[in-house]
Amino acid sequence: MTNRTRTDVLLLAGFCAFLFFYGAGQFGLIGADEPRYAQVAREMLARHDWVTPTLGGRAWLEKPPLYYWQAMLAYSLFGVSDVAARVPAGMDATLMVIAAINLILVFVLFSAYHQAGRPDTELTNFLVPMAVGALPFLIVGALIAWSLFGGIAATKAGKARQQSVTNLALTSGIGLPFIFLFGFFVGLFASAQELPAGSPAEAALTAYQFTWLAAVLADVVTLVVALVTRKSA
Fold first, then answer.
1. For 151-164, what is the mean pLDDT?
2. Beta carbons of 136 and 178 less than 8 angstroms apart
3. Residue 40: predicted pLDDT
4. Is residue 124 predicted with pLDDT exceeding 60?
5. Residue 39: how many CB atoms within 10 A of its CB?
6. Strand partners, 58
7. 9 alpha-carbon distance from chain centroid
8. Can you give the pLDDT at residue 224?
């Protein structure tokens, strides 16, 4: 990492920390939604239930559970508080900023590459294996979403959610090796191409590697949550 890159990372971290985290504990949860979602996550954590959101002991199925999972992790790390309830929003906003910057950088590099009259065969050749490597991400993600919505529908219908939790564990467990192996070997293949430094292909490879790591981490978390919930159900 060069000094310029290190400086840019520190500036970005400071920018996000100031905008999204500074003063998070200066005032309590406001509005109707913020206290409600924080309470839903608190009840889920108290029951050790990572599948069914509840509010006041009754199923609350109005929103996807991603925020509740993040808030439960924040509560586990920092304790139940207003600040911990706002940590997920700050983290998600930071990730959105990073994603936006990555997209802008890829676009700028791609444009500069074409304006310079340089061939873009590196990027073209890389897009096909990158798309193939991303297929398991999309398929497993769709199956996980199907399992979650199946659990929500079962809860609404008053049926047991054991089968949905089992489907979630099987989907994430079987999908994990495919995500890991496809992503790893595609990334290895692309890295072996000796992509030119600063080229759009190199920027795309970096973005792909971060996406692969995020997909593996998300699948592992989903598998652990499903197994813990299935055991306690």
1. 62
2. yes
3. 92
4. no
5. 18
6. 55
7. 20
8. 81
The DSSP line for 59-77 is: E--SS-SHHHHHHHHHHHH
Q: Can you say whether residue 23 is alpha, beta or left, with left for phi > 0 and alpha for psi between -120 and 50 degrees?
A: left
What is the residue extent of each domain of the chain?
A: 1-118, 119-233
Residue 189: predicted pLDDT: 73
Q: How far apart are CA 109 and CA 11, in angstroms?
A: 21
The residues near 223 (Cβ < 8 Å, ≥ 6 apart) are 169, 172, 173, 176
Burial 176-212 (b: 16+ CB within 10 A, else e): beebbebbeebbeebeeeebeeebbbbbbbebbbebb
Which two tokens mark 146?
Answer: 């199907």
Return d(Cα 85, Cα 67) in angstroms, integer.
9
Q: Given a cut of 90, is residue 51 above it in pLDDT?
A: no
Tokens of 77: 């790390």
What does the block give as tokens for 75? 């509560």
Longest dimension (CA), the chain: 64
Q: Contact 201/118 with Cβ under 8 angstroms?
A: no
CA 141/CA 147 separation, integer angstroms:
10
Q: Exposed (0-12), middle (13-18) or buried (19+): which is 50, by Cβ within 10 Å?
A: buried
129 contacts 186 by C-beta, under 8 angstroms = yes
The secondary structure of the chain in percent helix, strand, coil, rounded to multiples of 5, reads 75, 0, 20
Tokens of 55: 């509010």
**Spatial CB neighbours of 68, under 8 Å, sequence gap ≥ 6:** 37, 40, 41, 44, 53
Question: DSSP E strands: which ranges in the chain?
Answer: 54-55, 58-59
pLDDT number for residue 127: 63
